[in-house]
Amino acid sequence: MASVERSEEQKKKVVVIGGGVGGSFLAYNIQHCADVVLIDQKEYFEVPWANLRSMVDPSFAARSVINHIDYLTKVKVIVSSAVNITENEVLTADGQTFAYDYLVVATGHEESVPKTRTERLSWYQAEFEKISSANSVLIVGGGPTGVELASEIAYDFPNKKVKLVHRGPRLLEYISTRASEKALEWLTSKKVEVILDQSINLKSMQDGAIQTSAGVTIHADCHFICTGKPMGSSWLRSTVLKDRMDICGRLMVDENLRVRGFKKVFAIGDITDINELKVGYLVQKHAIMTAKNLKMLMMGRNESKMATYKPGFPFAVVSLGRKEALAHLPLFTLIGCIPGMIKSRDLFVGKTRKQLGLKPNLA
Ligand SMILES: Cc1cc2nc3c(=O)[nH]c(=O)nc-3n(C[C@H](O)[C@H](O)[C@H](O)COP(=O)(O)OP(=O)(O)OC[C@H]3O[C@@H](n4cnc5c(N)ncnc54)[C@H](O)[C@@H]3O)c2cc1C
Predict the structure, then answer these.
(1) pTM (2 decimals)?
(2) Which of 37, 39, 40, 104 to mutate to test the pocket of ligand 1 (most atoms within 8 A of CB)?
(3) Does 98 contact ligand 1 (Cβ within 6 A)?
(4) Among 93-102, 130-139, 275-284, which stretch is predicted with the lowest mean pLDDT?
């Protein structure tokens, strides 16, 4: 693909909406061969698998929250929300309009996070202080985020009383029962109290006491809501793509990851309706394949030559504190430290930074 570099006038306009794993990797990979605009609600990329560690160790965030302009040296970065898409333009909340030859939608999940890196680092510091000054912590939600956060706190602050309340019958319901059992065993061994089959109405919280749906009163100095986030697609409902969303708000894509019925509009990442686990390493595969396809199209090659996507292998890793993780594959579930597969999150953050052309910065 070396010959794709073009003079400024020849370059096609590619607009990428969303600066998470998918959008950032894609923009990075095509920045030298297209006139790329990245529209993101925030000025930085953040390694998502470092979020929970950063809450117990804010120095971690300094390595995993990276300003877009530090690695997207050739990209025009617009810090605003996309609010509308037409057949050839994207409109942002601050009133700007960007024409495109190709558009890539990568708005993943909706999350309200600070706009600037400085504010994001202060947010982590405040979360850390909240956890360190509490004797008891309540975590609501037993999916990967709730389990990982409970394990980070239990590992770094072994004397705190940590309770995790989950509405379902088992933790990590998106993977096997074996994985749920292993996670429960690990948390219980670290003295985390796991309450299953009960939900919490946060509005009922008074003076740090809260009732579960079964009438159990929980006292907690602080709490964290780790329930699922909505898709980052509600804004698409008034755009040309409104009829290309499934009932969960995901964009329906074809085998080339183009939005069905749209030749110039691609969608990648968690926002797509691809039947696979919604995980970052697969989102990176979407981005890399789409970058190749875009480069090919921009060179004028026939679209029938585009690469096609096959749903990814269902492999999930859930971190358990600093040293261990749970790895789930269809046939087995492992817990422990397996060289090359199970992390150190530091290694994963380092790898992500390297993939974005930055120093791994593992110090
Ligand atoms: C706590 C946590 C831990 C995880 N751990 C792992 C792990 O260990 N391994 C793994 O493989 N995966 C992990 N994942 C999953 C992985 O992070 C996601 O699959 C991945 O982030 C999805 O990437 P994305 O680009 O589709 O969306 P996102 O990363 O959600 O990015 C969406 C981006 O779009 C922006 N955006 C949204 N709406 C708009 C708009 N209207 N205009 C402009 N910008 C907009 C947002 O600001 C955001 O930057 C984890 C996720 C979380 C939350």
Answers:
(1) 0.93
(2) 40
(3) no
(4) 275-284
